[in-house]
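Good morning C.,

I know you're traveling, so I'll keep this short. The sequence:
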Amino acid sequence: MKKQGVSERPDGESDAVTGDVPVQAATEGGTRHEVARLLLEQGPLSAVAVADQLGISTTAVRRHLDVLVADQEAETRQDSRRRRRGRGRPAKLFLLTEQGRARFGHAYDDLAVSAIRFLAEHAGDSAVRAFAERRVAALVGPHREAVTRHSGAESRAEALASALTREGYAASTRQVGTPDESTGAQLCQHHCPVAHVAAEFPQLCEAETEAFAELLGTHVQRLATIARGDAACTTHVPAEPVGSEGRRRHVSLESADNVDADSRTPNGGTTA
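The C-alpha coordinates, ready to paste straight into the viewer:
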Protein backbone atom coordinates (compact mmCIF):
# COMPACT_ATOMS: atom_id res chain seq x y z
CA MET A 1 0.00 0.00 0.00
CA LYS A 2 1.33 3.42 -0.93
CA LYS A 3 2.07 5.88 1.83
CA GLN A 4 -0.26 8.83 2.26
CA GLY A 5 1.53 12.14 1.82
CA VAL A 6 2.02 15.23 -0.27
CA SER A 7 3.62 15.41 -3.70
CA GLU A 8 5.28 18.59 -4.95
CA ARG A 9 4.57 19.85 -8.46
CA PRO A 10 6.86 22.05 -10.56
CA ASP A 11 4.38 24.95 -10.41
CA GLY A 12 4.82 25.28 -6.64
CA GLU A 13 1.43 23.90 -5.56
CA SER A 14 1.07 20.64 -3.65
CA ASP A 15 -1.18 17.68 -4.30
CA ALA A 16 -2.29 15.59 -1.36
CA VAL A 17 -2.47 11.91 -2.32
CA THR A 18 -4.12 8.92 -0.77
CA GLY A 19 -3.06 5.63 -2.28
CA ASP A 20 -2.94 5.95 -6.06
CA VAL A 21 -5.64 8.63 -6.31
CA PRO A 22 -4.73 12.33 -5.96
CA VAL A 23 -7.30 14.49 -4.22
CA GLN A 24 -6.17 17.51 -6.21
CA ALA A 25 -9.61 17.65 -7.88
CA ALA A 26 -11.14 18.55 -4.52
CA THR A 27 -9.14 21.79 -4.39
CA GLU A 28 -8.72 22.56 -8.10
CA GLY A 29 -12.32 23.69 -8.46
CA GLY A 30 -12.09 25.87 -5.37
CA THR A 31 -8.92 27.60 -6.52
CA ARG A 32 -10.29 28.16 -10.01
CA HIS A 33 -13.44 29.64 -8.50
CA GLU A 34 -11.31 32.07 -6.48
CA VAL A 35 -9.41 33.04 -9.64
CA ALA A 36 -12.73 33.67 -11.38
CA ARG A 37 -14.01 35.67 -8.40
CA LEU A 38 -11.00 37.98 -8.52
CA LEU A 39 -11.62 38.57 -12.23
CA LEU A 40 -15.25 39.31 -11.40
CA GLU A 41 -14.51 41.78 -8.61
CA GLN A 42 -11.33 43.43 -9.89
CA GLY A 43 -10.79 42.41 -13.51
CA PRO A 44 -9.33 42.78 -15.99
CA LEU A 45 -6.21 41.47 -14.21
CA SER A 46 -2.88 39.99 -15.22
CA ALA A 47 -1.86 36.50 -14.12
CA VAL A 48 0.82 38.07 -11.90
CA ALA A 49 -1.74 40.27 -10.13
CA VAL A 50 -4.02 37.27 -9.49
CA ALA A 51 -1.10 35.20 -8.19
CA ASP A 52 -0.03 37.98 -5.81
CA GLN A 53 -3.49 38.21 -4.27
CA LEU A 54 -4.08 34.46 -3.96
CA GLY A 55 -0.58 33.73 -2.73
CA ILE A 56 0.13 30.96 -5.24
CA SER A 57 2.55 30.70 -8.13
CA THR A 58 1.99 32.53 -11.41
CA THR A 59 2.38 29.21 -13.22
CA ALA A 60 -0.50 27.72 -11.23
CA VAL A 61 -2.66 30.78 -11.91
CA ARG A 62 -1.93 30.64 -15.63
CA ARG A 63 -3.08 27.03 -15.69
CA HIS A 64 -6.43 27.99 -14.14
CA LEU A 65 -6.77 30.97 -16.46
CA ASP A 66 -6.05 28.78 -19.50
CA VAL A 67 -8.88 26.46 -18.45
CA LEU A 68 -11.27 29.37 -17.97
CA VAL A 69 -10.37 30.70 -21.43
CA ALA A 70 -10.73 27.24 -23.00
CA ASP A 71 -14.18 26.92 -21.37
CA GLN A 72 -15.10 30.38 -22.73
CA GLU A 73 -15.56 31.68 -19.19
CA ALA A 74 -12.73 34.20 -19.59
CA GLU A 75 -11.13 36.17 -22.39
CA THR A 76 -7.97 38.19 -22.82
CA ARG A 77 -7.04 41.67 -23.93
CA GLN A 78 -3.86 43.71 -24.02
CA ASP A 79 -3.30 46.25 -21.26
CA SER A 80 -4.14 49.55 -22.96
CA ARG A 81 -3.52 51.80 -19.97
CA ARG A 82 -0.66 54.26 -20.36
CA ARG A 83 2.05 53.50 -17.88
CA ARG A 84 5.79 53.15 -17.68
CA ARG A 85 6.90 49.74 -18.78
CA GLY A 86 10.13 47.95 -19.35
CA ARG A 87 10.89 46.37 -22.65
CA GLY A 88 8.65 43.68 -24.04
CA ARG A 89 5.05 43.28 -25.05
CA PRO A 90 2.19 44.79 -23.00
CA ALA A 91 0.80 42.59 -20.24
CA LYS A 92 -2.06 40.25 -21.12
CA LEU A 93 -5.15 40.92 -19.02
CA PHE A 94 -7.90 38.43 -18.24
CA LEU A 95 -11.60 39.20 -17.69
CA LEU A 96 -14.74 37.12 -17.37
CA THR A 97 -17.16 36.61 -20.23
CA GLU A 98 -20.91 36.57 -19.72
CA GLN A 99 -20.64 32.79 -19.49
CA GLY A 100 -18.04 33.17 -16.78
CA ARG A 101 -20.23 35.58 -14.83
CA ALA A 102 -23.01 33.00 -14.94
CA ARG A 103 -21.12 30.79 -12.48
CA PHE A 104 -21.89 33.43 -9.84
CA GLY A 105 -25.60 33.28 -10.53
CA HIS A 106 -28.24 35.52 -12.05
CA ALA A 107 -31.32 36.92 -10.35
CA TYR A 108 -33.42 36.35 -13.46
CA ASP A 109 -33.61 33.72 -16.16
CA ASP A 110 -35.30 33.38 -19.54
CA LEU A 111 -38.69 33.34 -17.83
CA ALA A 112 -38.08 36.91 -16.60
CA VAL A 113 -37.22 38.08 -20.13
CA SER A 114 -40.40 36.48 -21.47
CA ALA A 115 -42.47 38.08 -18.71
CA ILE A 116 -41.13 41.59 -19.44
CA ARG A 117 -41.68 41.07 -23.15
CA PHE A 118 -45.28 40.19 -22.39
CA LEU A 119 -45.58 43.30 -20.22
CA ALA A 120 -44.19 45.50 -23.00
CA GLU A 121 -46.48 44.01 -25.65
CA HIS A 122 -49.67 44.25 -23.62
CA ALA A 123 -49.10 47.31 -21.42
CA GLY A 124 -46.49 49.33 -23.31
CA ASP A 125 -43.09 50.80 -22.56
CA SER A 126 -44.46 52.88 -19.69
CA ALA A 127 -45.30 49.68 -17.81
CA VAL A 128 -41.77 48.37 -18.33
CA ARG A 129 -40.43 51.67 -17.06
CA ALA A 130 -42.64 51.51 -13.97
CA PHE A 131 -41.49 47.96 -13.31
CA ALA A 132 -37.83 49.02 -13.61
CA GLU A 133 -38.32 51.91 -11.19
CA ARG A 134 -40.08 49.71 -8.65
CA ARG A 135 -37.34 47.09 -8.88
CA VAL A 136 -34.49 49.54 -8.26
CA ALA A 137 -36.44 51.18 -5.43
CA ALA A 138 -36.67 47.78 -3.75
CA LEU A 139 -32.94 47.30 -4.34
CA VAL A 140 -31.65 50.55 -2.83
CA GLY A 141 -34.52 51.40 -0.49
CA PRO A 142 -33.31 49.30 2.46
CA HIS A 143 -29.91 51.02 2.26
CA ARG A 144 -31.14 54.61 1.93
CA GLU A 145 -30.38 55.65 5.51
CA ALA A 146 -26.90 54.08 5.43
CA VAL A 147 -26.08 56.03 2.26
CA THR A 148 -27.75 59.40 2.91
CA ARG A 149 -26.29 59.87 6.39
CA HIS A 150 -23.03 60.76 4.63
CA SER A 151 -22.75 64.40 3.57
CA GLY A 152 -20.60 64.26 0.42
CA ALA A 153 -21.37 62.58 -2.90
CA GLU A 154 -18.08 60.66 -2.90
CA SER A 155 -18.54 59.29 0.61
CA ARG A 156 -22.13 58.41 -0.30
CA ALA A 157 -20.80 56.58 -3.37
CA GLU A 158 -18.58 54.47 -1.12
CA ALA A 159 -21.54 53.63 1.11
CA LEU A 160 -23.64 52.80 -1.95
CA ALA A 161 -20.88 50.50 -3.25
CA SER A 162 -20.92 48.61 0.06
CA ALA A 163 -24.70 48.30 -0.13
CA LEU A 164 -24.60 47.06 -3.73
CA THR A 165 -21.95 44.50 -2.83
CA ARG A 166 -24.25 43.09 -0.18
CA GLU A 167 -26.89 42.78 -2.91
CA GLY A 168 -24.54 40.76 -5.13
CA TYR A 169 -23.14 43.45 -7.44
CA ALA A 170 -19.46 43.23 -6.33
CA ALA A 171 -19.22 47.03 -6.31
CA SER A 172 -16.30 49.33 -5.56
CA THR A 173 -15.25 52.96 -5.98
CA ARG A 174 -12.10 54.62 -7.28
CA GLN A 175 -11.10 58.26 -7.11
CA VAL A 176 -10.45 60.10 -10.38
CA GLY A 177 -8.69 63.36 -11.12
CA THR A 178 -5.25 64.62 -10.12
CA PRO A 179 -3.42 64.43 -6.77
CA ASP A 180 -4.18 68.14 -6.28
CA GLU A 181 -7.83 68.08 -7.30
CA SER A 182 -10.32 65.25 -7.36
CA THR A 183 -12.94 65.36 -10.09
CA GLY A 184 -15.03 62.75 -8.34
CA ALA A 185 -15.30 59.00 -8.11
CA GLN A 186 -16.23 56.10 -10.32
CA LEU A 187 -18.75 53.66 -8.90
CA CYS A 188 -17.99 50.27 -10.49
CA GLN A 189 -20.34 47.28 -10.38
CA HIS A 190 -18.28 44.26 -11.42
CA HIS A 191 -21.27 41.94 -11.51
CA CYS A 192 -24.85 42.52 -12.65
CA PRO A 193 -27.36 39.80 -11.76
CA VAL A 194 -29.79 41.11 -14.41
CA ALA A 195 -27.34 41.90 -17.23
CA HIS A 196 -28.92 39.52 -19.73
CA VAL A 197 -32.34 41.08 -19.07
CA ALA A 198 -31.02 44.66 -19.21
CA ALA A 199 -29.38 43.92 -22.57
CA GLU A 200 -32.90 43.74 -24.05
CA PHE A 201 -34.58 46.20 -21.70
CA PRO A 202 -32.26 49.21 -21.06
CA GLN A 203 -34.99 50.73 -18.90
CA LEU A 204 -33.46 48.71 -16.04
CA CYS A 205 -30.13 50.53 -16.43
CA GLU A 206 -31.80 53.91 -16.90
CA ALA A 207 -33.92 53.55 -13.76
CA GLU A 208 -30.87 52.42 -11.79
CA THR A 209 -28.83 55.45 -12.92
CA GLU A 210 -31.63 57.85 -11.94
CA ALA A 211 -31.99 56.18 -8.55
CA PHE A 212 -28.25 56.53 -7.94
CA ALA A 213 -28.42 60.24 -8.80
CA GLU A 214 -31.29 60.79 -6.38
CA LEU A 215 -29.60 58.81 -3.62
CA LEU A 216 -26.22 60.50 -4.06
CA GLY A 217 -27.75 63.96 -4.37
CA THR A 218 -26.00 64.85 -7.63
CA HIS A 219 -26.11 64.33 -11.37
CA VAL A 220 -24.26 61.14 -12.31
CA GLN A 221 -23.05 59.89 -15.67
CA ARG A 222 -23.21 56.23 -16.68
CA LEU A 223 -20.00 55.47 -18.58
CA ALA A 224 -20.26 51.73 -19.20
CA THR A 225 -22.58 48.78 -18.62
CA ILE A 226 -22.12 45.02 -18.54
CA ALA A 227 -25.41 44.74 -20.44
CA ARG A 228 -23.73 46.40 -23.43
CA GLY A 229 -20.62 44.27 -23.30
CA ASP A 230 -18.37 46.29 -20.99
CA ALA A 231 -16.28 44.72 -18.25
CA ALA A 232 -18.18 46.56 -15.50
CA CYS A 233 -21.05 48.97 -14.98
CA THR A 234 -19.26 52.26 -14.34
CA THR A 235 -20.93 55.45 -13.10
CA HIS A 236 -19.11 58.76 -12.70
CA VAL A 237 -19.96 60.68 -9.54
CA PRO A 238 -18.73 64.31 -9.71
CA ALA A 239 -16.90 65.78 -6.73
CA GLU A 240 -18.01 69.38 -6.26
CA PRO A 241 -21.08 71.46 -7.11
CA VAL A 242 -20.57 74.40 -9.47
CA GLY A 243 -22.81 77.34 -10.34
CA SER A 244 -25.61 79.02 -8.41
CA GLU A 245 -27.99 76.12 -8.98
CA GLY A 246 -25.60 73.58 -7.47
CA ARG A 247 -25.11 71.67 -10.70
CA ARG A 248 -22.21 69.27 -10.66
CA ARG A 249 -19.07 69.27 -12.70
CA HIS A 250 -19.54 67.19 -15.87
CA VAL A 251 -16.52 65.14 -16.85
CA SER A 252 -16.46 64.04 -20.49
CA LEU A 253 -15.23 60.67 -21.63
CA GLU A 254 -12.29 62.40 -23.28
CA SER A 255 -10.85 63.70 -19.98
CA ALA A 256 -7.42 62.16 -19.62
CA ASP A 257 -7.26 59.18 -17.26
CA ASN A 258 -10.70 59.93 -15.77
CA VAL A 259 -12.40 56.92 -17.30
CA ASP A 260 -11.25 53.45 -16.34
CA ALA A 261 -10.28 52.13 -19.78
CA ASP A 262 -10.56 48.53 -18.61
CA SER A 263 -14.30 48.88 -18.04
CA ARG A 264 -14.98 49.92 -21.62
CA THR A 265 -15.50 47.82 -24.70
CA PRO A 266 -12.80 47.70 -27.39
CA ASN A 267 -15.09 49.60 -29.79
CA GLY A 268 -15.57 52.40 -27.28
CA GLY A 269 -19.20 51.72 -26.38
CA THR A 270 -19.83 53.28 -23.00
CA THR A 271 -23.31 54.53 -22.31
CA ALA A 272 -26.43 52.67 -21.27
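Safe travels,
E.
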